[in-house]
Specification:
The protein is 0% helix and 47% strand. By secondary structure, the chain is an all-beta fold. The strands form two sheets. Strands 2, 4, 5, 6, 9, 10 and 11 form a seven-stranded mixed β-sheet that branches. The chain has a four-stranded antiparallel β-sheet with strand order 1-3-8-7, with no helix packed on it. It has strands spanning 4-7, 10-13, 18-24, 34-39, 46-51, 58-60, 68-73, 78-83, 92-99, 114-117, 121-126.
Amino acid sequence: QVQLVESGGGLVQAGGSLRLSCAASGRTFSTYAMGWFRQAPGKEREFVAAASRNGGITSYADSVKGRFTISRDNAKNTVYLQMNSLKPEDTAVYYCARGTYGTGWTTPRAKDAYDYWGQGTQVTVSS
């Protein structure tokens, strides 16, 4: 069983920065793509960013491109989301997720391409 634990959320003013971390259990972390999603109150969970198994290929939602950066440290079984120039509309619960078998060299955007999810961490951006 894979466990994903997010941390690093909090309250920040608009224009500020946060770095989210997601620590994964298991010995096959480097085999799979990893992604970040978010869900605001009353809205569907949406794709934010994804990284291929070695972090060499990344993909971003248009709404965060140029402001957020996904990275991973396979030696630490951890994926990160650096969030800069935060806006109030970035307020949401942020989830990390592990891609399904075979996604390693891709950066999937669909929720059903991920099979394990963390519990989420709240990010609140005040105006």
